[in-house]
Amino acid sequence: MLIELIDIRKYYDSKKYRVVALDGVDLKIDKGELLAIMGKSGCGKSTLLHILGGLIGASDGTYLYQGEMVDFKDKRKLAEFRRNNVGFIVQDFALIKEKTIYDNIELPLKTKNLSKFKRNEMVNEMLDKVGLEDKIWRYPYELSGGEQQRVAIARALIHNPKLILADEPTGSLDDENQAIILKMLKEVAKNGTTVVIATHDIAIARECNRYLYISDRKVREQELI
Amino acid sequence: MIHILTEIKFSMEKKLHLTFIVICLGIISTSLSFFSINLYSSLYENTEQYHQLYEGVSYYKTADNFVGEAEKKFEKDTNKFLKLKEYNEIMNNHEDFDYLEQYKQQIYIKDYKGNVSNLYRYEEGDYQNSKDRLISSPEGKEEAYSSVKSVWIGSNIIEYFKLILSEGEAFNEEDFVWHERQAIRIIMGHEYKNDYEVGDRIQLHIIMDHKEAIIAGFFEEGSNIAYQGQLLNLDRYVAIPLFNINEIPQTKNQEFVFWMLYLMKNSGTVATTLSANQVQDIIFEICNDIDIKPAYYVSGATNQQSSTFGMNMSTILEITFAVSIGVLIFTSIILTIYLYIKIQKNSRYYAILLMNGFSTKDLIWMVVGEILFIIGVSTVGGSIIAMILCQLLLGRVVSIGYVLIPALFSGVLPFIIAVKKLLRMDLCVYLREE
User: Fold this and answer.
1) A79 interaction partners in chain B (CB closer than 8 Å)
2) Position B298 in a domain
3) Which pLDDT score, from 0 to 100, does residue A170 have?
4) Between the CA of residue B316 and those of B28, B300, B311, B393, what are the distances in Å?
5) Which pLDDT does position B400 carry in this prediction?
6) What angle do CA B326, B23, B420 make, to 5 degrees?
7) Contact call for residues B410 and B339 (beta carbons, < 8 A)
8) If both were cysteines, with which of A46, B270, B285, B307 could B65 make a disulfide (CB 3.0 to 4.6 Å apart)?
């Protein structure tokens, strides 16, 4: 098992009131699993993804990653956890528009102790995989939506993470590009990387091994219809 | 660390014109602050140095303010000599203080027989150039003269400091009257005693002219005068009368000699129980009445007149301090706003960095790095400008260490606000927004 969440809660406190985003989430995710998390807007899908990826801490509960507890209070360790284990993909690609495709993909490698030569080799290899080798010195705004998402996938995979967290990865794409991206993510999962997709698209969820639904701030397992 | 530096560079390049404006502002504020601190130090360092109490009396060095344009302007004044003479007479007869004419200025002795310790700059260790320098005689022949330590004294000095001669006799009134072709009388310090005798005639070169001198006597060992805040031991010095001139200069040479003499006579010491600023006020009044502009200044007085600006120094100090503090606060606020807006605008960029392995600490370092870069460039640029200003207006840089004060001051507020802002932001929100 790669991940186990035990009674995870997330609150957002203001002076006057408390907003509960997640309320006692229990979840187990296996290695190489392709998992879909569904739910309405604002139900807590992204929050769950951010907790899984160590971007934010849970207010309460235990997060075990490969059997070891993730310490949300230690920001340095949390950054290290993200750096070594997680790749993120988001709906609007989150590419830095002033950086070239090369620089965007190279970003996760910059915090690692790798030579420029090695980084160059890895970026080129990854661009080859996503079929964008001819776009290396372009800027994101010179690429189509589908191409930008392929760049985002390349960036998420460049440091060989064990966990890919995709938040509405096909939300901004047409059917053709949606299919391409989904195919890529399935291939990633087939190669042993765990992929968790937050989506409200049932068609995407059908392509996954497992399907979860968030309602009443809790995660429920659902049968695919 | 390299990844942080790369991102600092990237972040700064994004709004290069804004960064440039903030740096320019930083340079202006640093140079102004640095200059005003130096101006303050220079004034109050002088106060410490010259305000020396000796038997309940303060001794203040006075000097002219004829520098640069002021000097050229005064030189052109046809009445300059009379003005200086009148100033001298008023100072010598003022009832509120004793005016002591004393001025250290080396003289040249032909065929010098004394110790090397009497040579000019012996204590500083570079007296080699003082020995056997070739000077043309009136006949055009080159002769060896040595430069020796000498103090020019007015007629009241011997009595005022109760100086006693071990041999010979002190100066009399007649010795202080300038005669162009007549030998002058000098008194030598104790260390000359083995090498010269009373009545010896020696050839001097003083104020660009040759003069015969007769040794009138020797000071007792350990004779001292109060000079520029210190006791000056006369054992290795030659005392020369600061002559009074009772005639109007007729030739160019006379004009030069009289001018030099009165510059020396008027750069004397005021012995008084008054404060430096009170003495300065009196001198202002005297100079104003005689029309000497800029006025003579009192070292250590904070109300002295600047030769460059023609204003009271304390007023200049107040103005520069007020302006520099104002600019410093303004710069600090602008830097804070600049960083605040930048962090706000960069939130999505920071969120992207965060999801790609950067830590919150990395982001803080990026902001701190940007602050340090701006302050660093401002400090270096501002210091260079301030040092040039100090050299031009104060003659020297009093303290370079103070440069860090404005740098620290302007960096604290932006640092606190920026880090606080960064830590309070929920950057994940920005991952879902474009």
Assistant:
1) 354, 357-362
2) no
3) 79
4) 18, 15, 7, 12
5) 66
6) 75
7) no
8) B307
Token readout for B97 is 């203080």
Nearest chain A Cα distance for residue B417, angstroms: 21
Count CB atoms within 10 A of the CB of residue B2: 10
Give residue ranges of A with CB < 8 Å to any B CB: 46, 50, 53, 55-56, 75-76, 78-80, 82-83, 88, 90-92, 94-96, 98-99, 107-108, 110-112, 155, 159, 167
With 0.90 as the threshold, say if the pTM is over it: no
Among residues B60, B265, B64, the alpha carbon closest in space to that of B152 is found at B265
- Which class does domain A3-221 fall in? alpha beta
Tens of pLDDT, residue by residue over B376-423, are 888 888 888 888 887 777 666 666 666 677 677 777 888 888 888 878
Query: Which residues form the domain of B9?
Result: 2-43+313-432
In single-letter form, the type of residue at position B296 comes to: Y
Token representation of residue A200 = 């409200």
First to last CA, chain B: 28
Domain boundaries, chain A: 3-221
CA distance A80 to chain B (A): 7
Contact B360 A55 (CB under 8 A): no
Q: pLDDT above 90 covers what percent of chain B?
A: 26
Among B378, B316, B327, which residue's Cα sits nearest to residue B42? B316
Give dist(CA B141, CA B134) in Å, integer.
9
ipTM value, please give it.
Answer: 0.88
Taking residues B153-167, what's their average pLDDT? 92
Write out chain B residues lying below 8 Å of A96, CB-based: 349, 352
Residue B142 lies in a domain: yes
As a whole number, the mean pLDDT across chain B is 83
Q: What CA–CA distance (Å, rounded) separates B99 from B107?
A: 24
Give how far Cα B238 sits from Cα of B114, B178, B190, B218, B308, Å: 11, 18, 10, 9, 35
- How many other CB atoms are there within 10 angstroms of residue B49's CB atom? 14
Nearest C-alpha of chain A: how many angstroms from B432?
Answer: 7
Whether residue B355 and residue A88 make contact (CB cut-off 8 A), yes or no, is yes
Predicted pLDDT at B240: 95
CB contact under 8 A, A108 and B428: no
Q: Residue B209 falls within a domain, yes or no?
A: yes
Most confident of A95-99, B150-154, B295-299: B150-154
Instruction: Assess if residue B192 is contained within a domain.
Output: yes
